[in-house]
Amino acid sequence: MDQIDRKILSILHDNARITISEMSRMIAMSQPAVTERLRKLEEQRVITGYRAELSLSKLGKHTTAFVLFKSNSCKEFEAFSEAAPEIVDFYRTSGEFNYLLKVVTETSETLEGFLEKCHTFGFSSTLVVLSTRFEDKLFPAFLPTEA
Asked: How far apart are CA 116 and CA 86, in angstroms?
């Protein structure tokens, strides 16, 4: 991966809907050359998808929480979690807790109801998000540099 690939990834991270022609102008390359680089990045699974960023508050989701969860019935909890629409991110972790969940609900009351359903599988420690300074700060800090 060279500097041009890193620039393409940075541009896509900022705006996944950008046109090939606009990206070509930004990095001073022909459209076929940019298209070929994108194809290669997709084939190498560097680019794994394109998505829209949604406004959770506009969708009625006003409460976000991170939940540390400890379960003795991991398979059952994982199956429950896959089906739970409140869980938007799910991580298996080391240490005292088995999992870290990012949970989004309408209100603190609906969060409480969700946590009560979870307690069938174990116990949790919950951190409610008060505000978000930034999310998905991936580029350019984590892009590999040329060796």
From this structure: 13
- What is the distance between the terminal CA atoms of the chain, rounded to a whole angstrom? 10
pLDDT of residue 77: 97
* Sheet strands (E) in the chain: 63-71, 87-92, 99-105, 122-128
Rounded CA separation 10/14 (Å): 6
Which amino acid does the sequence have at 35? T
Length of the chain: 147
Kindly list the strands in the beta sheet with 99-105, ordered across the sheet, starting from the edge strand earlier in the chain. Answer: 87-92, 99-105, 63-71, 122-128
One-letter identity of residue 26: M
Dist. CA 11–CA 65, nearest whole Å? 30
Token duo for residue 29: 């390359």
| CA–CA separation, 79 and 137 (whole Å) | 30
Tokens standing for residue 60:
């009625």
In whole angstroms, what is the distance from residue 85 CA to residue 95 CA?
26
Which has the closest alpha carbon to 110: 82, 84, 86?
86
Task: Compare 14 and 40 and report the one with higher pLDDT.
Answer: 40
pLDDT at 145: 62
